[in-house]
Amino acid sequence: xxxxxxxxxxxxxxxxxxxxxxxxxxxxxxxxxxxxxxxxxxxxxxxxxxxxxxxxxxxxxxxxxxxxxxxxxxxxxxxxxxxxxxxxxxxxxxxxxxxxxxxxxxxxxxxxxxxxxxxxxxxxxxxxxxxxxxxxxxxxxxxxxxxxxxxxxxxxxxxxxxxxxxxxxxxxxxxxxxxxxxxxxxxxxxxxxxxxxxxxxxxxxxxxxxxxxxxxxxxxxxxxxxxxxxxxxxxxxxxxxxxxxxxxxxxxxxxxxxxxxxxxxxxxxxxxxxxxxxxxxxxxxxxxxxxxxxxxxxxxxxxxxxxxxxxxxxxxxxxxxxxxxxxxxxxxxxxxxxxxxxxxxxxxxxxxxxxxxxxxxxxxxxxxxxxxxxxxxxxxxxxxxxxxxxxxxxxxxxxxxxxxxxx
Length: 407
Ligand SMILES: C[S@@+](CC[C@H](N)C(=O)[O-])C[C@H]1O[C@@H](n2cnc3c(N)ncnc32)[C@H](O)[C@@H]1O
Fold this sequence. Notes:
Subcellular location: Nucleus, Nucleolus
Pfam families: Methyltr_RsmB-F
GO biological process, one term: rRNA base methylation
CATH superfamily of the largest domain: Vaccinia Virus protein VP39
Number of helices: 15
Radius of gyration: 29 Å
CATH topology of the largest domain: Rossmann fold
Bound molecules: S-adenosylmethionine
Protein name: SAM-dependent MTase RsmB/NOP-type domain-containing protein
Organism: Pelagomonas calceolata
């Protein structure tokens, strides 16, 4: 029966008000639940647990399918990539890129090692001191040191130090340079000899150039070139401190270098790159580098590599070493393959670097020359070194080879 008493409108209003309030409370309750759910999903512990369970599921996918599981490999990888991106704070597109290089399990190992610092390494400068003297001086200053590795005669790993090792009197006197283990490898591949003409095309701040001068025993000619004038002060200061007497510091765009000087016995191209192998040193890389950056820089790297080859003395079968501190295939194997297609060069082994992983012969739909196995890849999770790529080329003849097929 309809309520037509005088109080009816007031009661109806009150009822409506109560209903509205109840509805609002329910809405808030729903939102809080949704937020809690979302927070829980992003909770690092839960994300990590999901990563582990997805890796487990991928390992036993066939068996799980037989037992009735219905998730596809693609959907597991999709969730894994999203979780890895949130857990390690890498852009999602970078995680996708790493998943084209590594298996899912290895990708997790790589990311985990990538965000942890690498050991501090002193490269002893044999132009001024012996390794045992450097070691003794550092120990006296409260450092704990050990030889870097069997492949290095000059590296010292500094495990603990009570003093800033970049400011000791021995450092200032040029007895050693702080240089990561991986950074020393391109120079070992180049193998410069006393009396030779050596070019480093992208040399600032001079870490690798000074190592070249050391192996050349300060005999020969060393050109340390870099595009960026503001970086030259650091190069000059380092070369001076380390007692290098054979270097000229030059400021040219490396792409135009063959028009400036040529006829070098060996050329090192330690190319500008995205730095995807050295994220621990610069954490901003993981949240800012994009796949578009990789493409752009690969274009520059190809131009620089052709210029490095053209700066060599083709008659003397010159040597070019190409290196980057990136792990992307686009900046490494693809750049070298471009040079193989455009110039008369072949990839040769870098014997000193046998311990590292071989370059890729394929990645996704890309195929590379079989000799790419002579290139070397270094990773934080396998070698406790920066992510690096090193490839040694021998120049076979004059430029502009028009290849029809890969031989
Ligand atoms: C990876 S760093 C070189 C590090 C150096 N080899 C060392 O060991 O100390 C790359 C260098 O390339 C230089 N660079 C960038 N574009 C260049 C270009 N077009 N020509 C020459 N140098 C360039 C940058 O200024 C940067 O110093």
